[in-house]
Design goal:
The protein is α/β, with parallel strands linked by helices. A 6-stranded mixed β-sheet has the order 7-8-9-5-10-11, with helices on both faces. The longest helix has 18 residues. The radius of gyration is 22 Å and the shape is globular. It starts with a helix and ends with a helix. The N terminus is likely disordered.
């Protein structure tokens, strides 16, 4: 038995000590005042959840970035992932999508590994991670979202281009279809990448800071788009930093600081206490959060 298993069993045994005196067994055999411990295997997660993460740890150069993350995403919700810089928010998404290796744990998309469910997932990365000087136009970028259906070595047909153009139209960028991606503003570039995710017609979307560096009009357009996705049953997870808009934008939250601090409906978990645990007493941020909580009447 390795150190981790020993730790899990020790914790389970300690919990059992408190139950044994009362004669409670919860499925275990009562022996010398102790209940036989049950080690979590991941089977407790719902099999039909859009995303299930079990006991996931991610480390860079042997230093943990995420530790023992357990999470089930509810269907058809806008889920905000919030936490301080360096909390592991982007790493969480990248680990789910196999873009960075996991030290341990299991991730399932609708009950199966990600590699078997790629067609159900859409991803909008951080703008800073994209090479905007790559010589492609906006329509080309959106059509890349269809390569899973087209195949990497096959040409993009008229029908595919039409679908890409329709997706650009949904984000107000149809008139820029032929524009080089490097010639677009930051907000316009973000809209193009949203269109690329849309054209995939995924069931589960991951968006890493989609509001970063965009103007107010683009931010509002993104919010409307997210609400449209939710209205047709899509599940969207969004890394977000602005605490003042959390209650307005999201109906479910995941508060993260290397480990999950709290998760659940925004009205229940978006509280000053949970934010203090998440941000460690950073007063400016907490004052912003307090104003947001008061204005929206959540977390009371």
């Amino acid at each position: 038995m390795n150190e981790r298993d020993a730790h899990n069993k020790a914790e389970a045994g300690t919990a059992a000590d408190g139950q044994g005196a009362a004669g409670s067994s919860r499925g275990g055999q009562l022996t010398s005042g102790m209940v036989k411990p049950t080690v979590a295997t991941g089977d407790e997660h719902p099999r039909n959840a859009p995303l299930s993460i079990h006991d996931m740890t991610v480390a860079y150069h042997r230093k943990p970035v995420l530790w023992d993350v357990d999470f089930d995403a509810p269907q058809g919700k806008l889920i905000g992932i919030i936490g301080p810089n360096g909390a592991g928010k982007s790493t969480l998404i990248k680990a789910v999508l196999d873009l960075v290796p996991k030290a341990s744990g299991r991730v399932l998309i609708y009950g199966k590994p990600y590699r078997k469910q790629r067609g159900l997932v859409g991803y909008v990365p951080q703008r800073e991670s994209v090479d905007w000087d790559f010589p492609v136009n906006a329509l080309d970028v959106v059509a890349m979202g269809l390569y899973g259906r087209i195949g990497w070595c096959r040409p993009v047909g008229r029908g595919h281009k039409r679908a890409a153009l329709e997706a650009l139209d949904r984000v107000g960028m149809a008139d820029y279809a032929g524009r080089q991606i490097s010639q677009l503003s930051g907000g316009q570039q973000q809209r193009v990448f949203l269109a690329r995710a849309l054209v995939q017609d995924a069931q589960l979307y991951f968006m890493d800071e989609p509001f970063a560096g965009v103007d107010a009009a683009t931010e509002q357009a993104i919010v409307v788009l997210l609400q449209e996705l939710r209205s047709v049953g899509k599940t969207v997870l969004v890394v977000h930093h602005d605490l003042q808009t959390v209650a307005e934008y999201f109906d479910h939250l995941l508060l993260l600081n290397m480990r999950i601090v709290a998760t659940g409906p925004t009205s229940e978990v978006f509280t000053r206490e949970n934010l203090h645990k998440t941000y460690g007493g950073r007063l400016t941020l907490l004052d912003e959060a307090a104003q947001a909580i008061a204005s929206k009447g959540v977390g009371r």
